[in-house]
């Protein structure tokens, strides 16, 4: 296994991508993109209305989701401070706030 993801139903056809990760040795080889594309297609076929995800306010992960059509819907201030025991740093910058993003499937009113 090189990667995994966790998706939970939110009700009314919405699902949240809680976590997605690829083993470091396999990152930047297209596995994450393939997994995300599979998740998007799977829930579209299942009749879902949208997928939501939360990520940091900067970094390659933000582009990773936006490239697949996710749009920013809000910000959860201090999420990474309030929900993790240790400070989290990416590229030497501390993560404070979580951006909430949503991918709406075409034809969905959600
Ligand atoms: C996010 C993640 C799942 C993407 O998986 P991946 O297999 O690396 O993804 P891909 O190979 O399909 O690459 C997708 C893009 O991310 C970029 N990327 C991946 N890892 C990167 C890194 N460490 N630094 C900078 N860019 C990175 C790739 O270069 C690629 O961008 P490009 O198309 O412009 O070249 C993976 O990097 C990961 O597990 N990261 C740690 C956990 C994490 O941050 N999960 C998301 C939480 S919101």
TrEMBL record:
InterPro entries: Acyl_CoA_acyltransferase (IPR016181), GNAT_dom (IPR000182). It comes from the Bacteria. Residues 1-91 form the N-acetyltransferase domain. GO terms for molecular function: acyltransferase activity, transferring groups other than amino-acyl groups. Keywords: Transferase. This is Acetyltransferase (GNAT) family protein. It comes from Paracandidimonas soli.
